[in-house]
Specification:
Length: 242
């Protein structure tokens, strides 16, 4: 129970990787506010340690309300996981403004909104923790993923700047960079028979990761164990030959 007494906010904490992270943080004793757009507010999970709150990371006021709600109900937040993300695949020559803006607005601007709204609370938390969510595709180019790759590369630089700016306030900012994970968007990719066999051939371990494996890395970055880790981008991809 490394996170007893801590309050965590996980954006996109209702499905896929975010849900796995929310469950792992709750299993370590944290109270977790799991936020998403399409969720039944207040529906409890994990014996009441996970509480769902409606929020849209593309809307600054919505994220500010989320942090205030977490603070007023549970104290903190002490840990913020900026996980919410979307993907809109398609060749760049045919990518609509709408799809580009959905990806950049959620994956990059949404992380900015989340970090900005969290700082006043994390400043007062002893050893505040921010964890952002990139992807293997933040470092590697994949045809058909222009907006997604660009958004994740930018999240990694944003994380590094925030780490430098917020360290004097006792807040660490680190980034998880999952590879192909059998959860959420990764599971959809694995179901694509035209793409998955080729991608699977690049995986050193010969398999996709699990949500629990990503979540264990999140627990490390959220806990006191990572006290001197700041500005890191931690790959959780099992090793990829690509
Ligand atoms: N799965 C993988 O293999 C993989 C690999 C590398 C990186 N990642 C990254 O990990 C994160 C989670 O991915 P996933 O695969 O778990 O995706 P997912 O299953 O599609 O879940 C995405 C979550 O984000 C929420 N969300 C989306 N837009 C939102 C918004 N504007 N405001 C608030 N919440 C929003 C969704 O809920 P609502 O739709 O109800 O809002 C949902 O809870 C993403 O950042 C993704 O890029 C995933």
């Amino acid at each position: 129970m490394q996170l007893q007494g801590r309050t965590a906010v996980v954006t996109g904490g209702t499905r896929g990787l975010g849900r796995a992270v929310a469950q792992a943080l709750a299993d370590e004793g944290a109270i977790v506010v799991a936020a998403a757009r399409d969720v039944e507010p207040d529906s409890p999970d994990r014996g009441g340690r996970i509480v769902h709150v409606k929020a849209d990371v593309t809307v600054p006021q919505s994220v500010a309300d989320l942090m205030r709600t977490a603070h007023e109900r549970y104290g903190g937040p002490h840990i913020v996981v900026a996980n919410a993300g979307v993907s809109r695949p398609g060749p760049v020559s045919a990518l609509s403004d709408e799809h580009w803006e959905a990806v950049i607005g959620t994956n990059l601007t949404g992380v900015f909104h989340t970090v900005r709204a969290a700082v006043p609370y994390l400043r007062d938390a002893e050893a505040g923790r921010i964890i952002t969510m990139s992807s293997l595709l933040g470092r590697r180019a994949m045809p058909g993923a222009a907006a997604y790759c660009a958004s994740k590369a930018a999240v990694e630089r944003l994380t590094e700047v925030c780490a430098l700016e917020l360290a004097p306030q006792g807040i660490t900012v680190n980034c998880l960079s999952p590879g192909f994970i059998d959860e959420g968007q990764g599971r959809d990719l694995m179901a694509n028979e035209a793409i998955w066999p080729r991608l699977q051939g690049t995986l050193a371990m010969g398999r996709a990761g699990t949500g629990a494996e990503v979540a264990r890395a999140a627990v490390f970055l959220a806990s006191a164990q990572s006290g001197y880790v700041n500005g890191a981008v931690l790959p959780v991809d099992g090793g990829v030959r690509w």
